[in-house]
Amino acid sequence: MALIVQKYGGSSVADADHIRNVARRITRAREAGNDVVVVVSAMGDTTDDLISLAQQLVERPDEREMDVLLSTGEIVSSTLLAMTLKSMECSALSLTGLQAGIHTDGIYSKAHITGIEPLRVVEELKKGNVVIVAGFQGVNPNMDTTTLGRGGSDTTAVALAISLGADVCEIYTDVEGVYSADPRVVTEAVKLSKIGYEEMLELATYGAKVMAPRAVELGQVYDMPILVASSSSAAPGTLICKEASMELRNKVSGIAHDTNVAKITVWAVPNHPGMAREIFVPLARANVSVDTIVQNVGGDDVTDVTFTVARTDVVKAMSIVEPVARTIGAARVTADETLGKVSIIGTGMQNTPGYAARMFNALAESNINIELITTSEIRITCIVSESRLTDAVRALHRAFDVEFRQSE
Ligand code: ADP
Ligand code: ASP
Ligand code: MG
Fold first, then answer.
1. Strand locations in 197-301 (E)
2. Domains of the chain: which residue ranges?
3. 181 lines ligand 1 (CB under 6 A)
4. Per-residue pLDDT tens for 117-155?
5. Which fold has domain 3-174?
6. Which atom of ligand 2 is closest in space to residue 136's alpha carbon?
7. Average of pLDDT values for 370-379?
């Protein structure tokens, strides 16, 4: 008998029929003799709908109230699933993040899990219940509700699996696993049977929203195997686990893309020591994470500083950087929200020259202009116009096609 944590995403619990389907799958796992803990997301587009409702009333809604509001989405789906299971003679109960003992820090909308005390979960499992936990939420040290960032139910699931010592964490979604690129953009994308944590983390961080990055990071640190599979078919999914063999590694495992990117440029910054600190320390204090940073030395002892942030953070970032720019004597600050980023990712790329050249060649042949370039040891990212982003993903998938097929 195994202890399994299963997570069902928003589209898998989008309506009554989908919830019934999920309930049937859970009863099958239970009948096979497993203890089952289930984490659910909010139904369908509930989270987006709640955000837009709040924004119809208030331009920048209060962060504390916003987190309580958004947490209700997952409470709705967890209760509906629990009552459906009970109606199928499968004993079950729903728990909120608080009841499941999920503790977080105090950063509203992007809280980090600081610890889990799953006493109630363990108690209910012992009583023979399937425990349905509302994903994406926890409580801060003041016992106020927090949420874990978009896609945060994945993080709830992996963190719970770790704290319960589960055998596996299964993430059920609307695709059959992790593909070499978003299968909704590249129809020829290849399903990967296995992928290492490191590559999956990079894919997720750079836009592959099939897994939340923090969930992968936790899986990697605690070595929790994560299976990504479809909630509507029995097709084998993708196992995210330790890299199987150094020799078998693909050079390029996948392509990620993301439209949640904005470029901010601070023009004519005096070229003195300390200027980067003046700009980036206040951003860090406000929890705005900065990705690519480019600084060019121009003439007249001034330099332009360009960096990217998530598009969802651009208003906050501009409100911080504009006054700083005035204080340090920079000319002006501009934001560009018409960009996207595309990345090729693979642990095998390190120490193998030529990958950047192949990437730039594929983009050039499709006449796609590169705005900024950033790299890590296992990733090359190009920032391009959002209007050419899907063309870029498809062109790169064609260029590296042979390598993806090796993993089939
Ligand atoms: P859920 O609601 O189940 O959490 P998400 O919408 O968050 O589902 O994630 C699943 C989606 O991730 C897929 O529908 C797919 O469009 C997208 N996706 C992006 N990149 C990939 C990839 N490399 N492999 C699989 N799916 C991907
Ligand atoms: N409902 C939240 C979101 O839409 C969390 C999740 O689905 O994982 O981001
Ligand atoms: Mg998701």
1. 226-230, 238-241, 254-258, 262-270, 290-297
2. 3-174
3. yes
4. 999 999 999 999 999 999 999 999 999 999 999 999 999
5. Carbamate kinase (3.40.1160)
6. 5
7. 92
